[in-house]
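Researcher: Checking consistency across runs. Here is Exodeoxyribonuclease 7 large subunit again:
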Amino acid sequence: MPHPEDAPLSVSELNRRARQALEQDVGEVWVEGELSGVSRPGSGHIYFTLKDDRAQLRCALFRTRARFVAAPMRDGDRVKVRGQVSLFEPRGDYQLIVEAVQAAGVGELLAAFERLKTRLDTEGVFANARPLPYPPRHLLVLTSPTGAAIRDVLAVLAARWPLSQVTLIPVPVQGREAAPALISALGLLNRQPALDPTRDAILITRGGGSLEDLWAFNDEHLARAIFHSRLPVMSAVGHEVDVTLADFAADVRAPTPSAAAEQLVPDRRERYHRIEGLAERLRRGQHAQLETEAQRLDHLRARLRHPGEVLAARRKQLAQLEGRLQQAMRTRLVSERRSAHHLRQRLSLRSPERLLEQAGQRLMRARGRLHQAMPRALARHRERLGGLARELQAVSPLAVLGRGYAILEDTQGRVVRRAADTAPGQRLTARLGEGRLDLTVTRADACDTRTDDGKPSE
C-alpha cells in the first residue's frame, strides 16, 4: 500500500501508466468473438464490440487498416481479429486497436489458398493474358442454370449486344462436385472445336458467397485446366471483393457476372450513336468534298482557254521574239563592225612592213655612227697602247739586260742576288739581253761591293 504521505496521481497520469502497462505486458494478440454494435462514422474508422457469452471488448479499426478488410462486417458475424491491447486515456476505456479482421474458421483455408497461389504463380499457371474476341461470336457460359449469375449475364448481353450467340453449359458451382464438373466441361469444349468453329470464348461465372461457397474455384486442377484451355477464358466469380485461383489463371477477370457481360460485348446503343456520328461525319465530309471539287472544277474551267486563243497568243509571242532577235542581230553586227574597224586601225599602226622599215632606218643610222666612231676609237686605243708600251719598256728588266747586265738563276728558277747564296760546283743559268748561258760556280767570294749611294752593286 502507498504511504499516506506519497503524492497522489492525477487521473490522466494513472490512465497513461495503465495504457503503457497494457501495451507492454499484453501486446499484440488474436481474439475471437461475435461482432456487435458495428459503427462506421464519416471519418472512415470502424468501431465495434467483440463479445462472447461472458464478456465483451471495445474495438477500434482505423481507416488506414479498414480499407484492407475484404468481407463486410455485420452484427452477429463471428470473426477473429488481431490487434494491440490499449486504453483510451481521455475516457479510461479499455480497448483493442485492431490491425486485421478474418472470418472465424477460415484462417486455415486462407493459409492453404495463399500457399497454393504462390506455388501456381511460380509454375507460371497465372501467366495467361490472351485477349478475348470483342465481341465474341459464340460465348460458352459455364455456370449453374438456376443461379442469378446466368440471369444477369443474359440480361446484360440481350440489352447491350443481342447478336452474340450464347450457349449455357450447366455445371454445379458449389460443393465437392463443382470443380470436377468444371474441369470436365473445359476439356470437352477444347476437344471438340470442329463442332462449331465460331466458338471463340468461355465465361466461368457464379454469384457471391462465403469463402467456403467459392472454394471450388480455388481447386488446383481447375486452375491448370483454365491455363491449358485452347479457347480464351474469362472468370467472374463472386462479388468484387472475392478473388479465386480461377480468376488468376484466366485470361481476363471480371469483378461480377454483370461486369463480365459488359466487358465481353459493346453497348449497341453506343455503337448505334457512334455509327450515326460516323454517318453524319461521312455526310459532312462528302458535302465538303463535293464543294471543294466543285470549286476546283470552276477554277480549272476558268483557266481553260480555246486552242485558237492559245495559238494566237503564241503567234504574238513568237513575233515579239522574232523582232527582238532581229534587233539583237543588227545591234551585234554594228558592234562587231566597229570592233573590226578599231582592230584594223590598230593593226595598221603596228604593221610588220612599217616596223621593218623603221628598224632598217634605225639600223642605217646606227651603221653610219659606227663607221664614224670606229676610226676615232682605234686611234685612241693605239695612242694609249703606245704610251703603255713605252712605260713598260722603261721599267722592264729586259731593257736593263740590253745594256749588258745579266740575271743569275739556280736550277729551281730562283734569282741569285748574293755570292754567299752559291756554292762551288753549283749550276746556274745566266739570262742575258739576248739568250741564256749555263754556268758552273768554281769559287764564291762573299765580298760586299756597294755603289756610291750605299746600295750593293748588281
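Researcher: Does this match what you'd expect to see?
Model: One thing to look at in this run: The CA atoms of residues 137 and 164 lie 5 Å apart.
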